Amino acid sequence: MTKTQPRSGYTLPVFACAAALAALRCLRRGIQSVDSVSVDLLEPIITASVPIEQVSVIKTDTALAVTRSDPGDNLDLTRHTPVWAMVELRRVSEGEIEEAQEQILIVGGEGIGHHKTGGGAAIYDYAQRLLRVNLSRELQTGEKITVTLILPSGRQLATRTSNEAFGVVEGLSLLGTTGISQPLSAPGQLEIYREQLQQKAQLFDCLVFCIGENGLDLARQLGIDPQRLVKTANWLGPLLAEAGCQGVKSILLFGYHGKLMKLAAGIFHTHHHLADGRREILTAFCARAGMPSDVCSSIFEAATAEDALEQLRVFDAENDSNWVDRIYGDIAQQIDLRSSDCVFTHSGQRVPVGSVMFGRDRKIIVKSELGDTFLTQIC
Predict the structure, then answer these.
(1) How far is CA 217 from the centre of its chain?
(2) Nearest to 132 by CA among 102, 168, 155
(3) For residue 363, which phi and psi values (nearest 5 degrees)?
(4) CA 277 to CA 263: how far, in whole Å?
(5) How far is Cα 227 from Cα 222, in angstroms, rounded to an integer?
(6) If I label 199, which of 153, 260, 289, 291 is the partner at 20 to 30 A Cα–Cα?
(7) Whether pLDDT at 228 is above 70
(8) What is each CA distance from 221 to 29, 60, 216, 363, 379, in whole angstroms?
(9) How confident is the model at residue 350 (pLDDT cuts 50, 70, 90)?
(10) What are the recorded Gene Ontology BP terms (predicted)?
């Protein structure tokens, strides 16, 4: 059987950068029609050609350019969403510019989320570097620009993401560590993940499964060898089974609590389009632990897993109790058991599984007993 490689696309920062480049060139060169621009992705070291839909001067020394997101063969809600960049150019005396970086001011406009704490625009390091490196090459001495990035549909699309769970509100974030958008949800990606897991299983007895970028980043910060990390996206079940078939000796699940808690109910494909029982799972564990019925009802009505966690923390603070530790400890233990059973069911191998869950503040909420043991061994 021939494996079909799913088509990759580009991440949102690439389209934001492309629109900014087109707007700047419109101002600098007086070009009113730009079909495409080349963007140096930095990560990886390749150049991408990005189509430009529209570009125009809108007032003296200000231009606006529009492109559209193309994430490739991925179930990405930003597909075809317009990405705007408005560039304002002014010329200043040489003494006003102390460093090249100060030539470029990046602003989050409508649809770009901002951090609930602190209020800064959710334009992360890779997006900042991508814009500054590419735009600085176009600027001359004495030129300074303000780049305002706009996602007209960002505020609406953000309601369908977990951004708010990570403290980003009223829009989408320009997040990512690379310019390539890997089709994490496309079926063909599972085969690629299996191949990556097979390679890592030859090197390590214990592998660390991370669903997304936040888990990968936090795991690296804790000192876990990046080569040991396996990005699973939502394919946890099939990859747990594959780990068993490859003879992996132990597995550490490392992820956001709103995702990993699904495993405690036997949900091993965690994409919310297929199954989302977070409030039911958390409420069931609250009731099982003996929490008051009115608190259980409030947990069930919580808008997000993060809101429910905050309710439990407030209840603990007001009553000098430890419900968070008890309930999340029970959930983590069940995640370990159900995951190990999943491996055995599909591979016939008994593989111990530990779990570590973190919250939107990127701080660890709970480590199961095995999770704590594995984490200590590999850090």
Answers:
(1) 10
(2) 102
(3) -105, 145
(4) 10
(5) 14
(6) 260
(7) yes
(8) 44, 46, 9, 11, 10
(9) very high
(10) methylation
Sheet containing strand 62-68, edge to edge, reads 54-59, 62-68, 82-91, 143-150, 104-108
Positive or negative: CA dihedral 171, 172, 174, 177 = positive
Whether the per-residue pLDDT at 165 is higher than 80: the answer is: no
What pLDDT does residue 247 have?
Answer: 94
Share of the chain above pLDDT 90, in %: 63
| 3-class DSSP state of 136 | helix
Contact of 61 with 47, CB cutoff 8 Å:
no
Rounded to whole angstroms, the Cα distance separating 366 from 218 reads: 14
Amino acid symbol at 308: A
Centroid of chain to Cα 324: 25
DSSP E strand boundaries for 197-347: 206-210, 229-231, 250-256
What are the CA-CA distances from residue 54 to residues 84, 140, 148 (Å)? 9, 25, 16
pLDDT at position 28, please? 81
If one compares 254 and 163, the residue with the highest pLDDT of the two is 254
- Report whether pLDDT(172) > 80: yes
Burial of 19 (0-12, 13-18, 19+ CB in 10 A): buried
Cis peptide bond prior to 44, omega within 30° of 0:
yes
Lowest mean pLDDT among 46-60, 91-105, 173-187, 232-246: 91-105
pLDDT in the model for residue 2 = 41
> What is the residue-wise DSSP string for 158-185?
HTTSSGGGGTEESSB-B--SSSEE--TT
* Percentages of the chain per state (helix, strand, coil), in multiples of 5: 45, 25, 35
| Distance between first and last Cα of the chain | 40
């009115």: which residue's tokens? 294
DSSP letter string, 189-224: HHHHHHHHHHHHHTT-SEEEEE-SHHHHHHHHHTT-
Using CB atoms within 10 Å of the CB of residue 98, give its burial: 0 to 12 exposed, 13 to 18 middle, 19+ buried: exposed
- Calculate mean pLDDT across residues 31-50: 89
